[in-house]
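Hi there,

I know you've been waiting on this one. I reran it after we fixed the sequence typo, so this is the corrected version. Both the input and the resulting structure follow.
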Amino acid sequence: MKIPFYIVFFCLIFSIHSMAQSDFNINDLYYSALGGNVSSIITKLDETNDSKLDEKQLEIKNKYYHRFKFENEEFKFKTSDTVLISVYNIYLTYWKNALLNRLSLSDADHLFTSDLTEYIWNIYYKDKDVSKDSIYNDITTYSKNLLNERGFNVANGRTGPYFDLLVWSKENKVNYKVELPETKIDVHVVFMEDVVSLGWEEYATFGRYYPGGWATSDALYCVGSAYDLNSETFRVSYLQHEGQHFADYKVYAKLSGADLEYRAKLVELIYRKDKFYELISFFINNASHSDRSNSHGFANYCMLRDLSKTLLKNDFEKDIEKWKKISIADINAAALKLFKQNTASLNKVGKEVKELIN
């Protein structure tokens, strides 16, 4: 998101079930969804034999069918506000068009922006001195302002390549001191409460993955109900990860999302001890070098590539069993070394640096 919006996935909270007697598992479906490829999920599910699926697997198959194949799901909104529901429905249509690849992303973006512009103009600006072009060209601001006036807090820039919609009603603010590899910072964490929407990732994975939080130049935002605040998932993968973003915004104001994620993910590997190899496995499964705009996937790839060269003497190690042969302490140390090298390289270019990893 251009409202800087960097995501922590809840990759370690729920158990993972494997697809019986098939060449993929349920988590593969979620990884495809997070990669914006729900159409491939439907294809895989079409090829499965229902008699070989257990009750949980069949339930997930039916969920994907009713939401994305038959499109006859009765979606349950967590609000009764009719304006928010109307806006939300426009997002749902857009997410389906984009995730099912029914339109090119640019065409899906245009249709979404046009539909949302028409709705906002008709209900709010029709009799005011505001043109449709003005709304279209700044759709996130106009739609956010509309929902803010109805009492909702909103983050609605882009998550990855897609327009997103996160909405919540209440906030609770807490101050934290955060240790980072090269500094210590004080931050305000805004815990979101009464959440209505957690965006396209929640929608595409039926709540299995979703944004856990993000950083702005002023504060960190967090879906507090999803975390054990005493866990490393919160203290490291949320607070220190997002805290690194917060610190980097102050120093490297123009740095790309992929570069910011590279540094924050290294911070996770510097400090994590608990469920460590599960975290690396998640990074492996969500690594992609094909599209820099997919900041998380691109950063995952570059980070694991650099660690692989340092620790395993190859270009990119996908086998988690090989990673498990390296001690957590050694990976922690290698991640810290890479982080410091990255800082030195950034400083050599200067504070106006935009991109470094490739």
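Quick highlight: The CA atoms of residues 255 and 353 lie 6 Å apart.

Best,
R. S.
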